[in-house]
Specification:
Strand order of the largest sheet: 1-2-7-8-9-10-11
Structural class: alpha/beta
Largest sheet: 7 strands, mixed
Strand content: 15-25%
Bound molecules: MU-OXO-diiron
Distance between the termini: 55 Å
Helix content: 25-40%
Amino acid sequence: MQKAIAITGSVYWIGGNDRETDLFEGLWALPCGVAYNAYLINDEKVAVVDSIKSLSFADYTDRLTSVIGDKKKVDYLIVNHMEPDHSGSIRMMRQIHPEMKIVGNKKTIEMLDAFYGITDGLIEVKEGDVLDLGNHKLTFSMIPMVHWPESMVTYDTTEKILFSSDTFGGFSALEGGIFDDELDMDYYADETLRYFANIVGRYSQQAQKAISKVRGMDARTICPAHGPIYRSNPKYIVDLYDKWSSHRTEEGVVIVYGSMYGNTKLMTDAIARAVAEAGIQNVTVHDASRANLSFIVRDAWRYSGLVLGSCTYNTELYPPVATLCRTLSNKMMKNRVLGICGSYSWSKGALAELQMFAEKNSGWQLVEPSIEVKSSPTDGDLELCRELGKNMALAVKRKKAEQDS
Ligand code: FEO
């Protein structure tokens, strides 16, 4: 039977690791899985922070029972967030603990009805309300649209533990260790950025407000709903989320191509080489047909430069590049530089759509030249690609200087 892991003498991790789901939200690849973190506070009154995705329910209840046994019941289930990776087993929890009160804000309560038909046994909380468990006093703080409207965090003022929901979360299952001092944090930083960029990034403005609130709390331990628990250095994850949500970037260029027969790829290869020759070490190239979008979005969030190359397909952008452009627009990134190129054989289309993408997204500054090639690039076309690569390198160096000044 799975056992709870102690965070302090009375607070426990009772989450689960999911290595079976291939795509988070049906979209984002999970090659290393994901952890659904949930927490138990075993006081005079027993509170659980969040339920869990239904497929991990057995792990969750085993860990819970390993602390409270079969006779003690859960008094409160606190629902920080209603997305079903956390709320999916609320009804099953209710069946086991019928007297349990479900704690959430006004919007949570609307969603409990809409998702699960739950309308009774509820406690509505507002900003700053206190739930007294005996020794532990919990307060609630609203962080709307990080990344759903009902999102909130729960703060244990007794032990200074923040249960931060998706905020400060990351992808990847927890590989034995669950605490920041037990894990390879370089690896988790990558997976945390991939989570941030794809799940939270669009709501960076709201994330900035949440970070301001958190900085005022003086939390000693941060317990997110995914990824590592930060007990040794909670400031580390707050600073990372602050950097990403304020659109501070690293010097580098991500290059993405959509190519049927390799002609557009020839162009982006020439651009990539020119960027590297101009002294940019961080150059990452993705094939839009093969890379999961989540990795491209992560790299676009990390680096200040992006080059998009697309062949024309049935008079339009190549479908994987079209999906990428729509996704990037939705993420509302700012403070980036963009280069574009494309090819066609019997009808133009791709470059015009990339130009529209550049015009529509005010956060992207276009670097010249934009290049359009008929069928296969000539030596002259490839020279233009090298010019674009050099200009991209200069632009990302300028961007770094601006940020450093
Ligand atoms: Fe981890 Fe927004 O759910």
